[in-house]
Structure formats: structure tokens, C-alpha cells
Amino acid sequence: MPRPLPLIAVTEDFEAFYKRQYPRAVGLAYALTGRRHVAEEIAQDAFIAGYRRWQRISQYDKPDAWLRRVVVNRSTSVLRRGITEVKAIPRLRGGMEHIPDLEPEASDVWNQVRALPRRQAQAIALFYLEDLSLEQIADVLECSPGTVKTHLRRGRDRLGRKLLAWKEEA
Amino acid sequence: MNTEDKLRRASREIDRVTSSVIAPPMSELRRSARVQGIGIALAAATAVFVLVGGAVLLLNRGGATTLDPAAPGVTTTTSFVTTTTGTEYPLETYVFPGSNPLPPIELDESEELTFRPVDNDTRPSDISQLRQVSYLGPFVSDVEIVMAGQLGSRWDDPRLYVIKGVFADTVEPPSWAGRDGGCYVVASSSDSLDGVACWVGDSAPVASESTSSESHNIFVGRFTEDEASVVVFEWGSDTRWQRLRGGYFYADIDNPDHLAIGMTAYDTSGQVIFADTPESATTTTALAALCSGFDIAPSALALSSIPQPLAETLGEIVDAARQCDFDRLAAIGGDNFTASFGGGDPSDLWTMEEEQGRKPMYWLLSILDLPYGTIDTEQGTLYVWPSAYAHQGSWETTPDADVEALRSVYSDEDMQGFADFGGYFGYRLGIWENGDWSFFVAGD
Fold this sequence. Notes:
The structure holds 2 protein chains of 2 kinds.
Chain A: H1 12-33, H2 36-52, H3 54-57, H4 63-81, H5 104-114, H6 118-129, H7 134-141, H8 145-169
Helix pairs in contact in A: 1-2, 1-4, 1-6, 2-4, 4-7, 5-8, 6-8, 7-8
Chain B: H1 3-18, H2 26-59, E1 65-67, E2 82-84, E3 92-96, E4 115-116, E5 131-136, E6 144-150, E7 160-164, E8 183-187, E9 195-200, E10 216-219, E11 221-223, E12 228-235, E13 241-251, E14 260-266, E15 272-274, H3 279-283, E16 286-287, H4 308-322, H5 326-333, H6 346-355, H7 360-368, E17 373-377, E18 380-385, H8 400-406, H9 412-421, E19 428-432, E20 437-441
Parallel strand pairs in B: 3-4, 7-16
Antiparallel strand pairs in B: 1-2, 3-5, 5-9, 6-7, 6-14, 8-9, 8-10, 11-12, 12-13, 14-15, 17-18, 18-19, 19-20
């Protein structure tokens, strides 16, 4: 008889990780998608994936980098496909706290960030919102710090021009 | 207020509005994880039926036995029916649900197909957590395979990709063989490919393996957060792994954890031998982006002989080109980079050229395998590939060694074209000695 497969042993570590990181994950997804409910769904989906593989992820040097990578990638997927709902993910009850609207100016800035090339937008969100270093962002985006620096520089430059043009149009 | 200040203020605003967000209770998360696990297992079961059904059709094109999803023991199939023919099924197929708390899936013996969990004793321990769908059984090598992968566990999910196989020449297994999740090719003889075993999982390390003296497995694929790729090899008569008439499967898949795999096989004339991937998998697909640079590693790249900043840039270029990561390539290029004399966004240009089959990434990586030359300018020294380009417009004075080096990439006809033109005008790439990437342009 085949041996039964090991089930993931969920420790309190995951719960602490989950509670500590959840709001930040929602914030990151919100910045990258601009959709409040979708942001919560993406965060929940990421934590569900993390929960199911916590035994392995908890061994990583930086479990939070793994989480951010998942959130960033799933946010990009949502944007790329124009999906308004993350259909395959069962929504968790009890977690849908109301997220207030952003101030209009902040909303405009993030709208313009999302219009940047994907990697530039991700680098900007991780740098400014998550306050990560170039090295930490490189871990999340799986590239070199030099590439992150380039994305940030180009993203900032392009964003500056976009915001200026937008302001002039307005 | 400058851009920097605006971004910091906008970030504080996100912090403000999400500060009140409370994580849902752990009990809810556990429940949802269980539901999702079952969904993934269903997808895995679906893929197994596709694999098995297709393989059986390949081998037994007469007869008519329908594998009924409602048959005893087949309780976890989804909405499609896999049709099989023939009465002999030399198959041993596994459903490997990893950590999913599902019971073994077993077909009725009368169906002569067996589904059972992989015996951990025969598999490397480090793949024990992967949700594996494997098919160990006869297969033929003269088919083209389309693997359909999707996110989520439903075949009608619109987020669907097709990974299409193409064919080419003999190569060694790619450098990343043994890393990440992916597929095995299983061969039981020295001259034929006998099976393809695929699984889905995250990017945990997986080792190559041979499961027994009669079979040879090689790890040939990978699934990461961003992409999936599969290279199919066979064990050739010269005891080398051979890529099956060359190809690779490549797709941009964001979430491998929820990937289900199906197969459609074509014979070499293009006729569909079987197409029992679910209907929606063949009608709502988005064709995967084929990357001409995939798996090409410039072997002669002499990083040690060039300035360090330049070597770093080259390393990044090679890495990005092999993945057709055009955004990253454009980022490496920066604002002063030239990809086309006509201007425009480099990412858009390369995407279009790849789609048109012009293989810019293949050419980029191929010319980096050639000797480089240098051009001294007022701005500094420019390193150019291939070296023949350093002798711009002067074919007659281009050293023989630089001309000969081109022959590994160009045909005699191409070479005659350069001679007639009076100089090298093919793809070339230039990087300043400080590491700034100056250009990668096609021929004039």
C-alpha cells in the first residue's frame, strides 16, 4: 500500500504571519489593481496558497518575499485579463471589512502608476508603498537590484511626465 | 510637489485606508484552503483522464471503449468525457494529489486502467509535496503535442493557455533541468519516447531521476510564478538526451499552483489524432508566446575578458533574452537604447517580431556567442557583437577570423550578401564599457 501523503502541519507561526501581513498584502494588491474587493481576494488567495504550503514556505529565508511575489503576480494577472472578480477563489466570510476610498489625488497617482509598464509599476509599489530596499525588491521580482533600480528610475521619469500631462489636460 | 513626494503621499494614503483591514478568521482560511485543495485535485484528475485517453487513442485507433466519468470509482472527474479505444491499456497512471486530502482514485479493474497515488518509495522525496499527474506508458515520438494549462480548476475558466510544441534539433537538457516543477519524459527503450509525465507545483527544487533500470526519466520542464515551459526529450541511440525535433513549450502562466494539464496530439501532417482536451480548452485558448531565445545559452561568452560593468549588463541581457522578458530587456536598455532606427518601444518591437517569427531573441543570443570587437569613440569604447561589425562597411578589411566566425550563424547565401554589400549588416549589439547598453538592431 502506498504510504499516505503528509499533510501540511499548520503552526501558530502561520497565523501570526497571516495576521501581521494581511493588511499589507491587501494594500499592495489595492495599489496594483485599484479595486478594493479584488485586492482582498488576491490577498486571501495568496494566504490560502501560503497556508497550504506553509511547511515549505516557512523554511524560506523570507516568507514575506514569497507572499509579496504572489500578490504582485496575481495582481498583474487580474489587470492583464481585465477580470473584475477572482472567480476561482472562494471568498472568505468575515474578512470583507470596508476599505474607504482613496483621496482623489492619491487615486490619480496610483491610476497613473498602474498605467506604467508592469515591472515599473511593481517596483514603484514595492519601493514606495512597501518601503522595501532595492535588494528586497529584487528578491520579490526575481531580478537584480540593478534592474530594479532601472525600473524605478524609468518608472519615476515616465510617471512624472504622465502626471504633468494629466494635470495640464485637467 | 515632485513625483517622489506624490508617490510617498499616495503610499501613505493606501496605508491609511487599509489600516482598518482585519484578516478573516483562520477557520475561514482553513475551510477555503480545503475547498481549493479539492478543486485542484479535480483538475489533476481531469488532466490524468486527458493524458490517459489521448495516449490510448494514439496506440489503439480502432475499437470503441468509452471511459465513462460516471463509472465506478471515477467520481472525481469534471464535465468532460474522455474517449478511449481498444482493449489493451499498457498503462500505469498516477494521480498524485500532494497534500490534498483526497482518497486514491481508482478505476474499476474492468476498465483495465489503474489510478493510484504514487508510491513514495519510488519517487524522490523532494517531489512528495507536488501535485503530480503522471502518465507512464507508451507514447510515440512523431506527434506534436499541445498542452493546455489553465488557472483554477475549471476547464471553462477563461484564463487558459495552450502550450504548443514544436520540433527541432539535438541538444542537451537545459541548464535549469532539475529545478522547479514540471514534466518528466519517461522512456523505456533506447530509441523511443515512451511517456510524458507532468506535474504542477511551485518552484521547489526537483531532482532528475531514474525510477528503475528499465526507464529513464529526465526533468524537462518548469513552472514558476510567471511562466511554464516544457521541453520534451527522448533518449537517443547515441545515449544522449535529444530534444524531440526541437522544441519547447512556453507559456506565460501566472499561477502554477492551479495549473491543470491536458494534451492534444497531432500527427506530422497536422491532423489531430486526438483532441480530447475539454472542448473549452481548444476553443478559448490564447496561444502561448513562443520565445526564440528560450534555452539558448551563449557558450562562448567571454565575460572574464571584458570590463566588469559590461559583463554584468551582458549577464542580465542574456538572462532576460532567454525568457523573452522584454520589459526587463527594455529596462536594461534605458532611455538612450536603440532597438530600431525607426524608434518606438523596444518591448513592442520585440514582441511583434517574435510573433512574426523573426526570432530577435534567437539572434541576440546567437551573435553574443560570436567574438566581440571594439569601436573607440569620443564617448568611450563601445563593445560590439559580432566582431565583424567593428569593421563597419569594410568587408574586405574585416579579418578572416571575424568573417569565419559568422559562418556558425549565417548561411553561405547570407555571407555572400555581406560580401556583395561590402560589410556586415546583420543583427548587432553594442554596449559601452561602462555597461550602458547602446543598441541591438537588425540588419539595414
